[in-house]
Amino acid sequence: MPPPFRPRAGPDEDGPDEDDTDEDETTQVSLVLDSGALTALGRRDRQTAARIAALRRRGLWPPVVSTAVLVDSLTGNRVRDALANRTVGMSLVHALDEPLACRAAQFRGRARAGTAVDAIVVATAELLEALVITVNPDDLARLSQHANGVSLLPV
Fold first, then answer.
1. Which among 36, 76, 84, 152 has the fewest CB atoms less than 10 Å away?
2. How far apart are CA 112 and CA 118, in angstroms?
3. Phi, psi at residue 120, to the nearest 5°?
4. Half-sphere exposure (CA, 13 Å, Cβ side) for 55?
5. How far apart (Å, rounded) are the C-alpha atoms in residues 12 and 2?
6. 71-123 per-position pLDDT tens digit
7. Which residues contact residue 24 at a Cβ distance below 8 angstroms, ignoring those fewer than 6 apart?
8. What is the pLDDT of residues 25-76, one digit of tens each?
9. What is the DSSP string of the chain?
10. What is the value of pTM for the model shown?
11. Environment class of residue 15 by beta-carbon count within 10 Å: exposed (0-12), middle (13-18) or buried (19+)?
């Protein structure tokens, strides 16, 4: 069975761009999306296209999406799920297993904040040493204080 994600290429394989100066974004090996970011990055507008292009230049695209985020984000209605499904189609889906669920539970217990899905996003990011794109930085910041190697980027 292939791994649930693939290794990322280094930042800017063909040379750095002048606007690629943020160390936190360029040193991450992968990108994990929370539920809100999953939907936000599915929009078809110039700002979103520019964000995705910048993430690609940094070797952070495609993103990783936890199966728990799919449960939280999708409704089963094709029309209502269109934006999220667009992003899912460009993403690598990471399955929730028992060790990851237990690690997420530790974060929730220590932080006393966030939802189970938020904690799973942070646990997934810790596993992958990833940057998390989030629309909910407050709860995720409290959870990520108990994780190793997790950085947040608000949408």
1. 76
2. 12
3. -65, -40
4. 25
5. 26
6. 999 999 999 999 999 999 999 999 999 999 999 999 999 999 999 999 999 99
7. 131, 151, 153
8. 444 469 999 999 999 999 999 999 999 999 999 999 999 999 999 999 999 9
9. ---SS-PPPPS-TT---TT---HHHHS-S-EEE-HHHHHHTT--SHHHHHHHHHHHHTT--S-EEEHHHHHHH--S-TTTTHHHHHHHTTSEEE---HHHHHHHHHHHHHH--S-HHHHHHHHHHHHHT-EEEES-HHHHHHHHTTSSS-EEEE-
10. 0.81
11. exposed
Nearest residue to 134 via CA among 148, 144, 145, 146: 144
Which one-letter amino acid corresponds to residue 149?
A: G
